[in-house]
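[Solved] Which block belongs to which protein?

Original post:
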Amino acid sequence: DRKRVRVYDNQELAKIKDWFMSDKPSSYGHVGSEWMWDMCIAASKGGMRQSEIVSVARPIRGVMSYLTPDELWLVLPPEVCKSKKGRKVAMSNPVLLEAIKRLQISLQYVWSQKTFYRRWNKMRNDLFPDDAEAVFHAMRHTAASKMANELKMNTVVIAKALGHQSITTTEKYIHANDDALLEAITRM
């Protein structure tokens, strides 16, 4: 029944980035949170789910990496996808590709759900204290909405990018913004 409609705008993404990137490692064993920002990149630019992101550091079936040799695609096997059908994530964005490469290494050493949620909740309490919808999953809504509003991608392509089996599901992820509506009417 939860109807998350949260989409992070560019200013909010910049604040989230600054928060995670400023959380540096300390001499008493604290690991920094740069890897958290890399996870945000994977979700907001690649439309990846948290479990899919975590899987890049723990490939299955003896595969060393889900990246194709030409590094154009991240091929997720059925076992790590919600649909159980597998999917490809385009890696043509250099920022996304570099984040995935860093995550392949860093998540092996820092990942635990407890650590993830402890860091996420601290950031949320600092930046979005009264916003219950400021959840990590909203990064996927951000990806879908940017694809629709800014990149003008059609819903079928967005569904494929997010790994949705149904356009109805994808429509729940796309949130039209006022600028996109104004531009559409202007062009009519």
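(Second protein starts here: sequence line, then its structure tokens.)
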Amino acid sequence: MDRLTVEHAHDGETGFIVAKETIALPPVIADGPRVDEAVRTAGDRTVIAFATADRCAPCQQYKKDAMNNPAVIERLRGGEFVVTHVEVDRERTLADAYLGGAAIPMTYALRDGERVAVLRGQRSADELMAWLAEVAAM
């Protein structure tokens, strides 16, 4: 996987690698409930929460490579998970309350509102699929 193929630049003031383009989330993620609603309504299902920011180039690459991958989308649509997304720059209070902060890109598995697994950083579709399988087996 080429690590950063999305248009990006280095911000010398902040040290961040900032995105010059924003990749759209697939509907299975974009149309999901807010994280607080997902936790409230999940029942015995695991909540999968993707934490990203529009400014973050690695986040945009994660969306491009893994979140928009057809196999990942199919797995997320399967019904075993409640899928949500937290845009940490716009939903900082939710990120702090449910995810424990605003680190990005991150993927969380939540049960009963508690973090049970975390996938840190930008990942390939294969890495995300393997992690989802591990979470489902927990």
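Accepted answer:
You had them paired correctly. Confirming on the second one: The two ends are 28 Å apart (CA to CA).
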